[in-house]
Amino acid sequence: MTASNATAAHNVDYDAVIIGAGFAGLYQLYKLRDRLGLNVHLFEKGSGVGGTWFWNKYPGAMSDTESPFYRYSFDDDFLADWDWQRKYIDQPDILAYLEETVRRFDLGRNIKLNTEVTGMVWSDDGHWSVRTADGRTVTSTYVVTALGLLSATNWPAIPGLGDFKGRLVHTAEYPDDLDIAGKRVGIIGTGSTGCQFIVASAPVVEKLTVFQRSPQYSVPSGNGPVEEGEVDGYKARWGEILPQIRESAVAFGFKESTVPTMSVSAEERERVFQQAWDRGNGFYYMFGTFCDLATDSEANEAAAAFIRKKIKETVKDPATAERLTPLTPYAKRPLCNHEYYEVYNRSNVELVSIREDDTPIERVTARGVLTSDGREHALDVLVLATGFDAVDGNYRKLDLWGRQHINKHWDPAPTSYMGIMTAGFPNMFMVVGPNGPFVNIVAGIEVQVEFITRLVQAAEVRGKIVEATKEAEDAWTETCKTIAEMTLFAKEQSWIFGANIPGKRHSVLFYLGGLKNYRDCLETSVRNGMQGFAFPNETTVGSKVEAAVSESKDGEAEHIEVAPAQVT
Question: What are the tens digits of pLDDT across the range 431-474?
């Protein structure tokens, strides 16, 4: 594209189209519309805003990030006005919070609900054509995909699933009218969602049958009502808390440990693990106790052994306790729940191990689930907590064409530059795209949205086209691989490497270097004139562009002055 094509980008329906009305999409709408003054439109396939928290309405659904840190930080008045009642915020309150965000900032006038985007095509004239399921096509200079990290539902290929005559539901599409009280309920899957459902449903159902493939390490959440004055205390200290979050690794609101596990005595390790167990939170147990649980096998085994001991102490039936006990490293996304293991002491809860060496599922029948021991587990409701095709799943469902189709570009594995752009797809920005930071999702979203806003602002004065270079994308991919291989996470089969999807290539999907280091990478790019990004339509070809960026309190660029250096 030549400089003479620059005006073509003005003949579009919108300056920017955003896809998705969760935490990411709503914040990006606010930034592009209210901070940059662009004409922005957001498409959301659901009948309401909320993204993940609109769809995931299953019993027990809640964030595993503590309430003070699972919210936006960009508006002081909003921070001061919004209260919470418990240590963790549950799905109805998260949804109410996002609905209040829309109301407070008048975002609804730029949102079209019940509209699914099915395809996008890039034109070298400098715009995207965005197609929706109702047959409409709109054009836009920029597109921001806020499709969600965990939103492409994974329906398992279990024989006979369609034969079941009871109620079959996936937790990601949990219906409002389903009442499980007094019913015989089966659940397949014991990841984060499954564990939450198990804890919440066990007290109300007639019988709960848990079909478990892989036992999980879970620590207490420490959930409960906030103490008097606690909320006001967080509000008063937010000016101190926010910098700490952004300068930390996992951004969960605590200071990560710098103490190696084996540098202290066995008695001290026991004391530290017990303190973390009593306090609650999975990320705190993994990163707040010692500094090397995710990287050192001996340290990891010490943490895992402590949890195994707790399982044995908690679960009364020895056979059940054994089936619940993981023997693999403690190297998946850390779980926390309120009295998860205690649930299995209830007389109405049965654990069925469906590992290949135990009693795997043969098929689903009209009446329930048939396992390999010949037993048919009769059910009224079968719940699938089988997770998502995480990170790239929703992109692959789109008919998405940049300079090639997204599935071809991402063969054999998804790639990006800093989780924000992928080479060959100009003016398409991703929030929590492949190889973005593995951190508290809201904190990560804010950092990415603020950087995307900088990129758009830079593009507006540098020819209206920006794209990640292949060299930058390749280097970032190698960086993510190198860091992942330094951790024990890479040795485990989990969704954070795509292992939960049959046939999906094991690949690195996250930057595991922490939020502080990730922000440093973004700032290095800014200081070097948006290094790693090309502006092919820039009018001063061959110039060295110096961006003078004045910072606002949230770290986003208030103004970028482009001063081309002397071309020699």
Answer: 999 999 999 999 999 999 999 999 999 999 999 999 999 999 99
What lies within 8 Å, CB to CB, of 305 at 6+ separation is none
Query: Which stretches of 473-556 are assigned E, i.e. beta strand?
Result: 510-511, 533-534, 545-551
Q: For residue 529, what is the enclosing H or E element? A: none
Q: What angle do CA 535, 25, 172 make, to 5 degrees?
A: 130
CA–CA distance, 140 with 128 (Å, rounded to integer): 5
pLDDT in tens, 52-71: 999 999 999 999 999 999 99
Extract the tokens encoding 331.
């190297």
Please state which CATH class domain 3-152+389-533 belongs to.
alpha beta
E-strand ranges in 190-253 read: 207-212, 218-220
Answer for the pair 524, 530: CB distance below 8 angstroms, yes or no. no
Q: Check for a shared fold between 3-152+389-533 and 161-384.
A: yes
Task: For residues 421 and 551, give the distance between their C-alpha atoms in angstroms, rounded to a whole number.
Answer: 23
Cα(300)–Cα(326) distance, rounded to whole angstroms? 13
Q: Strand locations in 317-425, DSSP E? A: 335-337, 349-353, 361-364, 368-371, 376-378, 381-384, 399-401
The alpha-carbon radius of gyration of the chain (Å, integer) is 24
> What is the length of the chain?
568
Report the DSSP pairing between strands 436-437 and 510-511.
Answer: parallel
Inform me whether the pLDDT recorded for 552 exceeds 90: no
**H-helix segments, 315-440:** 318-324, 393-397, 406-409
Residue 105 and residue 28 in contact, taking contact as beta carbons nearer than 8 Å: no
Please state, in angstroms and rounded to a whole number, the distance separating the CA atoms of residues 11 and 385: 46
Q: Which residue type, as a one-letter code, is found at position 94? A: I
Sorted by where each begins, the domain ranges of the chain are: 3-152+389-533, 161-384
Helix/strand/coil for 28: helix
**What does CATH list as the number for 161-384?**
3.50.50.60
Burial letters 245-259, b for 16+ CB under 10 A, else e:
bbebbbbbbbebbee
Q: What is the pLDDT of residues 463-515, one digit of tens each?
A: 999 999 999 999 999 999 999 999 999 988 887 888 777 877 888 999 999 99
Q: Give me 501's structure tokens.
A: 């999807």
Alpha carbon distance 273, 251 (integer Å): 20
- Residue 400 three-state SS: strand
Residue pointed to by tokens 């993981």:
326
